[in-house]
Structure formats: C-alpha cells, structure tokens
Amino acid sequence: MDIRIYFVLVALCAALVKAQDPEIVDEIWPEVQQVGRTGRINCTVTNKQTSVVMWEHVDTGEQISRDADIEMQLNPMIGGLRKYEVQKRVSGDRETFMLIIRRLVETDAGTYKCTIRITAVAYDQWPTKLGKITVQVPPTIRPGETTAVLQIDQGQNSSLICAASGIPAPNITWTKSDGGFLPVGVAQYRSHILPMTNVTVADMGVYRCVADNNIKPPAEHLAQVLIFHAPATRVVQNSVGQAQNRRFDGKLECIVKGHPEPTVTFERLINQGRAPINDDDKYDINKQTTDNQNLKAGEQWYTLKVKNVQANDFTDYYCIATNVNGRHESTITLFETMECQGPNCPSLPSARAPLLQLSALAFIPTILLLLRHIVLAR
C-alpha cells in the first residue's frame, strides 16, 4: 500500500473519532436576576456517551453537580424545592444540563464552569465553557462611611459623603429637604460626594441623598448640616393686643435661630429699665415642639404667655437669644384693647338681637292705629 494512502486513511479515522468526541455546542448565555429570585444557566453537549457533565462555581471553587446529581453537601430545602438543582433535557444527540439556583443571594453571583469529564483524556483537554450569573441587589447606605452630622464655621469648606452599595452600582443624588438650592448652586447634584464650599447660614439644614439602581426600593439617608453662627431672632407679631381685668392671657411669640442652639430669655420694660421674666404663676415660657412646618432650618419657636392681663402688663417685652457667637433680641409690644383677642376668647351673645326686638315693638302702635282706621271706615 502506498504510504501516502496509509497516512490519509489514518487521518480520516482520527477525524472521524474526533467528530465523535463529546462537545459543548452552544454558548452559555449570561443570566441576570434580582436577589431572592431564581437563576438558570444551560450547558448543551453532544456525543456525551459515558462522559460526565459537571457544574462548578469558579469564584468559590465549589463543585456543584455531576450530570443531574448535586454534589454539594449544603443544599437546603426552599419552599419545598432544593436550592440547587440540575435538570436534564434530551433532544436527539443533544443533552442540555440546566443549573437552577433558587433564592439567589449576593454570593451566588459570579462565573460558573460547565465541564465534560472524558475518561482516559487529560484534564486540560476536557471541554469547558463559562457562564455568568449576575445577582442584582437593591441599594443600601453604608452608615459608617456616610455623613450624619456636619458642623462647620461660616466661610469654611467641607463635603457630605453618601456611601452606598448595590448591584449594579447605584446612582446617588443629593437634594435639600426644604427644596432649596444646594451649595453648588443647583437643586439636585449627582455624586456620592457633595462639595460644601464657602458655606453660609443659608446652607444650614437637612440634606437628603438617594441611592437608586432601578432595583426597588431605593435607599435614602438624611444628613444634617449645622453652621456655627450668632443668634438671630424674629417675632410673629411685633404688637399684640388684649383686654385687661377679665382673666384673659396675652400670647407673645418669638422665633430664634443660631448654632450652637441659643439660650432664650425674656425681659419686660418697667420704669425706664428692664426686668427679667421667670417662668412662674404670672408668666409661662414655652418652647414649641410641634407644628414647626413654618420654621426654617435650625429655627425654634418660643412663646411667652402673660397670664390674666392687667393694666401694668401693657409695655414692651424683649425676646433675647444668646450663644457663644453673640446675642440678638426682638421687641414685642403688649397693648390694651376693649375686647378679648385670640382664639381662646369666650363666645358672647350677639348685641344685635335686643335691637331687633326693640325695633319690632316700635311698630306695634302704628299697626294698631291702622286697624282702627279700617274699622271706622266700615
């Protein structure tokens, strides 16, 4: 036999044998699922014969299965089904081994390898293909790396940090809780770091960072910014009226702002001088803790109640705020009125009712006179 024909026949036999070797015929498509759901990836082989198809988690090095049998020691029941399962489907000479992972957690993500173990073939010659499972995770804020409270002097520079995790990585957006502009000059700012440059008292307030990666729910965090500054005071009404000697009270209101939080006191004008006011039977000093929706960031609402207003109570009162950075005051005048003022005044009978009764009585003589004329005319 011609030596050339011999080699051709050997090559044809080798090719025929090669064509009969087990092979992974399709790509393993990546799987993307949210945490808690079920992931599935497929490995399709031909000419499997007596070889074994194995699944392995490359990231952890754990071998999961041999053909349809699960090799992992820890395979808990979840809702009546095992966490790991391999389902086998046969179509002609094609066999598909579907790896199913239920109740996905973040550690289930990664690269998975499908391998055909062939007897009498070297390990590095075994057919393999890789597939990937991505586990989408809702955002979470990392508290230890995120700003909770920032205290800073006016004119200084700093920043707010919002550290968040999630898969995919979340977008982080900063806004101010009162809807105002951020120190960077816009209402919204997208970054995990919000620059605070040359801060002023107007920058004081509560800032909100929202981390969102389209996997619900988004994560939210509030950071408080406190600017050291001297107190400022303003009054709700600079003059308040009330009637005297009728057990009516006068309510004087003052709004205070400053950081550190100021100490608030009240004084009254008396004999061309000032006298301090104490919280006693005559006066009630109260810091309002509810219904503060009309206050700006850092403001506190104080009330001075003058009980049972008398003639000598009509004078000027001073709301004084003091902290380590300074002092400020506002003046409120309490003046006399003829009637009770305020929402707690007693209801009085209408003064118009007696007048209507008198008006009706005044017409009686006229009616009688008309009736007399009618009778005489008959």
From TrEMBL:
SMART domains: IG (SM00409), IGc2 (SM00408). It comes from the Eukaryota. Keywords: Disulfide bond, Immunoglobulin domain, Lectin, Membrane, Repeat, Signal, Transmembrane, Transmembrane helix. One of its GO terms (molecular function) is carbohydrate binding. Pfam families: I-set (PF07679), Ig_3 (PF13927). Residues 22-116, 139-214, 231-333 form the Ig-like domain. The chain crosses the membrane at residues 355-375. Residues 1-19 form the signal peptide. GO terms for cellular component: neuron projection. This is I-type lectin-like protein 3. It comes from Littorina littorea. The lineage of its organism: Eukaryota, Metazoa, Spiralia, Lophotrochozoa, Mollusca.
